[in-house]
Amino acid sequence: MKFRTEGLIIKEQNIGEQDKLIHALTKTNGVIKAFVRGAKNVKSGKSAATSLLSYSMLTVHPGRDSYSISDARTLRVFSKLRQDVKKMCLAQYFCELALTICPREKSAEKYLSLMLNSLYLLNEDKRPAELIKPCLEMRLAAMSGYLPDLIMCRSCGVYTAPSMWFFPRTGAIECSRCRSVPSDGAILLSEAALTALRHTVYADDDKLFSFALSDEGLGMLNRASEAYLQYRFEKEFKTLGFYKAIS
Fold this sequence. Notes:
Elements: E1 3-15, E2 19-26, E3 30-36, H1 46-49, E4 54-62, E5 67-77, H2 85-101, H3 109-123, H4 129-143, E6 163-167, E7 172-175, E8 187-190, H5 191-202, H6 215-233, H7 238-246
Parallel strand pairs: 3-5
Antiparallel strand pairs: 1-2, 1-4, 2-3, 4-5, 6-7, 6-8
Helix pairs in contact: 2-3, 2-4, 2-7, 3-4, 4-5, 4-6, 5-6
């Protein structure tokens, strides 16, 4: 039976001359794969509404192996991202993260909200890209069950120190007094960078992006979040590599 749901288009692929295959992060059913007949016809109302980064109201028909979309109405388009190559590449990385991490065939309202908030902040220049990115990375990982243990040094139990090592393989931290020589791909974090890393996973949803950090601290934070996702999901994200290449 068909249903209607809000969804963010996170991937699109042309099929033949008129149709395309999309992946959408939907509010009610998580990530779905769906065919859109006639979507490449510019006169079709489904054309813009099923384009990458469009947030739309979708009428979805379940099929045996995939879905089909009979109607789509645009709710929001993050149009400014398309005018900035660097931002567009980062947005495509966000989409690859969603495609990899977000759930399928179950409610994903919080995931969708996180993605939309991240894209909005990026689109409107409300926060630096270097701050939005690690917030999205770490919060997605935490929401999907990969919550790092950032409470205290795993050796001595101290909560704060001038610097601490973060271990992406395990998600644990260790103070520099207990670990003088790094190992296991450890990343050295300043006290401020560690506070920010904790914030990305422990802060309330409405406070997630509400902090400031120096450029040096943001560099540490991004290295930590990138490495953590790489180890947790055992994947090299191609869109991330491209984004870093042009940055």
